[in-house]
Amino acid sequence: MSQKKAVVEIAQVDFAYDGNLVLENITLTVEERDFLGVVGPNGSGKTTLLEIILGLIHPLSGKVRVFGRTPKWSRHLIGYIPQHADLDASFPISVMDVVLIGRLGKAPMLGRYRKSDRQAAEEAMRAAEIYDLRNRRFGALSGGQKQRVLMARALVGQPELLLLDEPTASIDGRVEQDIYELLKKLNETVTIVLVSHDLGFISTYVNRVACVNRRLVCNPTEHITGDVIEACYSGPVHMLKHKCEL
Questions:
Q1: What pTM does this model have?
Q2: Per-residue model confidence as pLDDT tens digits over 12-69
Q3: Which residues are CB-contacts of 36 (< 8 A; sequence separation ≥ 6)?
Q4: In the chain, what percentage of residues exceed pLDDT 70?
Q5: 55 backbone φψ class: left, alpha, beta (φ>0; ψ -120 to 50)
Q6: Pick from 14, 176, 178, 238: most CB atoms within 10 A?
Q7: What is the H or E stretch that residue 120 is in?
Q8: What is the C-alpha to C-alpha distance for residues 175 and 180, in angstroms, rounded to an integer?
Q9: Cβ 188 vs Cβ 105: under 8 Å
């Protein structure tokens, strides 16, 4: 059996905002086809960790490698899905046009999108199960549909690593389960790092959990106990296990 390759390698990373240490001595390795869940209290540094992997911010110290190179060099191999749509809901843009935005780094600098760009967008929409919405106005969609569109926008660049920042925070439970089922399917070919507020839900899908509260502790999902979670959140936490029909 061939050894899995490291997709993300973080070693002894510190990061601070305005002199306040947010992440301290962070060491983490994410291997190909991992599905890593990142949890922790508000303000614990979860989103900051994603931004470091993306190369949007730089640590005070330590080493970060993504696909063996700097995060900035590897950014074209990463798909990112934010917590909220970064688009004005009143702007008259179609689902197809939103998804095509994800091809801007690959399309020509001048001129229209190529046929290959539109084909890639169609494939991404099918993967996100929203192809039938391609001509709908983005602002008229439900919260769950919008998140699937953002997922297609991230997938259209054919990433090898997918980063998601609480993608189901404002979505009801039934739709949330559908989103995670889709991510489980995508994980067959794409490495996923997912920030979530709901450990009970994601524990059904992820294979490892990173608890972040300035420092980081990473465990296989089956090793996550009440004591581990309480240590991460610095207090008592009730973990509810969601049962999903697969």
A1: 0.86
A2: 999 999 989 999 999 999 999 999 999 988 888 999 999 999 999 999 999 999 999 9
A3: 30, 192, 193, 194, 206, 207, 208, 209, 210, 218
A4: 87
A5: left
A6: 176
A7: helix 115-127
A8: 9
A9: no
- Cα–Cα distance between 88 and 31 in angstroms, integer? 36
Which H or E run contains 218?
Answer: strand 215-220
The enclosing domain of 200 has a CATH number of: 3.40.50.300
CA atoms within 13 A on the CB side of 68: 3
Do residues 167 and 148 touch, judged by C-beta distance below 8 A? no
Residue at 61 is within a domain: yes
Residue 29 to residue 9: CA distance in whole angstroms: 5
List phi, psi (to 5°) of 134. Answer: -55, -30
Question: CA-CA distance, 75 to 142, in Å (whole number)?
Answer: 29
Q: What is the DSSP string of 70-130?
A: -HHHHGGGEEEE-SS--S-TTS--BHHHHHHHTTTTTS-SSSPPPHHHHHHHHHHHHHTT-
Q: Is residue 174 part of a domain?
A: yes
Find the domain containing 42 and state its range: 6-87+161-233
Q: Which of 23-27, 214-218, 230-234 has the highest mean pLDDT?
A: 23-27
